[in-house]
């Protein structure tokens, strides 16, 4: 007779949509043990109409409600506590069967569901989104062979080489132990002390001081697996590999003053940005690519390919793009989905393997352990973590919060019934790559790990002028916040190991030692893929760009509606910001209900501003908030556009000789991203978007698609306007 203790699952793939329930007016409120509640608003107590007497402990409904609430928090992540996530899909457009057997990377007919969580590293769960920090980019693919997690960042290298240093680097950057300060910042003594003490941090520190650490949106940043993994093909040949995600919308950042302000004005800026884009059907997409290095070539470079503080230069090892990641479904409930999402670098599927990257090896211990402490031994049974393929393990039966009910009398292998047998490799069983190992037992890293400045110099040399300016400002801001002279003086000396010019500027700003010579001569080398300005969208686009239109009573309805339609038709998110939300009346009598009123929003929360013509400019000119909207947009390098009467209003807020605005009757003048003109409202059309576009709306759109007007800052104009 067949044993009755067979298996644990019905062997089918799980439909993730069935993990949710939707509450509606038909379903009565119950306790968690199921009885219907008749009065959820009052504790059971003794008394009468005149006297409220003592509350009764007998009230099991009230007691359970309060006691459950008392335990509603779980430990926040020790790093990356602040984050947000979404579901999506992975599609492969080219099979990588030559290098791997992993179905997710070889079967082009599959659509693999996935979950991504973006995060900041330093701040606690309630900190602000736009702080200067590395962003986490953690991907969980629910493949047919099990879950595959790529737990990456938006920066391709890491601070340290050996995982044993992780608690030190994190302690140094987190709020200091004596006063729990600062929150959401690396600008403090301990962090910079650590950076000085560990020259291996230099490369990542430059990335972190660059604009990469203040992204405009999660949708506009790259993702990197950072660590080196392996791919193994069906002949058993192994290649080393690094994983890349490159955003369709390009890589863009905020400017620093804006990031600082948004942290207070809208601490949820990035999570709202992601949610609203997905809600609008503007699904963010990333190309998925791999850098592949045959294992026999791993000694061919002047760096060790297993060192996570080094990039693999694209000139030497090109990225092969083979797939696309799309995010297309917001979570239904934050806590069970995003907060309880749990990733493990050790979760790989057959065809993918680890490497001897010493950081990865340590990470492989840490993540499973942290999930047990945050969520308990059965964390993988939670819906967001559960594989979609059948999973069944007769040994894992106990532990807090066990959900899955497994029938049968045995919970060990081998057993007399041969229940739940392992799979042979030919049946899809995971096997580790049989890498030959030899060596002495010692606390060591190979000698190439000892070189720490070369790639930091290449990174610095490869940045555009504007990015170098931002980097100098970022170093200066951070070191200015260090009040221990030992810290900022040593650090300015250390910067001279990468660039004497940068070290001199920073020393001047923060009062450090001005170095007399470079600590290490600059190698003068540059490489591609490091400056983020290289990552513009393939076709110019303003999709999902937040554009504000300022209006007050007496605005010109024709230019307002024509511009709004032109921008909306290109999928921009257009917001009317009016003197009052109760309604604003046009010169010709039409009434518009704005999305916001002047003081409810700030220019910082938009990518560009348009001011239609009309008599309303007289009101705008008397409103400090409306005026500051223009000056602040200018200082933050944002495209500004105005027509007819608005031309004068705009020019009065930006009083600089270099900025030209349209002379009376001139159809369009463009100057440093300020686009002005005298046009008939109806002519605001966009037929094409490009550098040689002629029309007023077209030129405005072109500048919005370029993100920011860097020339304004390079030529020293932005700094002259107070924001
Ligand atoms: Fe880590 C979380 C990324 C090194 C230990 N890490 C965490 C998350 C991301 C990264 C994106 C958040 C995942 C989520 O959204 O839930 N970590 C990285 C990258 C690293 C890195 C790209 C370098 C290549 N991490 C690293 C080391 C260790 C850890 C060397 C320990 C030895 N990381 C953790 C952790 C966390 C974590 C303590 C905290 C919460 C969690 O795991 O789930 O285990």
Structure notes:
This protein has 723 residues and is of the alpha+beta class. The protein folds into 3 domains: 45-381, Catalase HpII,  Chain A, domain 1 (Beta Barrel); 453-534, Catalase, four-helical domain (Hemocyanin, N-terminal domain), CATH 1.20.1370; 546-720, 3-Layer(aba) Sandwich (Rossmann fold), CATH 3.40.50.880. It has helices spanning 60-70, 166-173, 189-197, 202-209, 256-265, 269-279, 334-339, 358-375, 454-462, 465-480, 485-495, 500-510, 557-569, 616-620, 624-635, 645-653, 696-705, 710-714; strands spanning 45-47, 52-55, 82-92, 111-120, 135-143, 146-153, 223-224, 229-232, 238-247, 285-294, 319-330, 352-353, 546-551, 573-578, 584-585, 591-592, 596-597, 608-611, 640-643, 669-671, 674-677. The strands form 4 sheets. Strands 3, 4, 5, 6, 7, 8, 9, 10, 11 and 12 form a 10-stranded antiparallel beta sheet that branches. Helix 10 runs parallel beside helix 12 and helix 11 (485-495) runs antiparallel to helix 12. The protein is globular. The model is unreliable at 1-9 (pLDDT under 50). CIS-heme D hydroxychlorin gamma-spirolactone binds next to strand 4, strand 5, strand 6 and helix 8. Keywords: Heme, Hydrogen peroxide, Iron, Metal-binding, Oxidoreductase, Peroxidase.
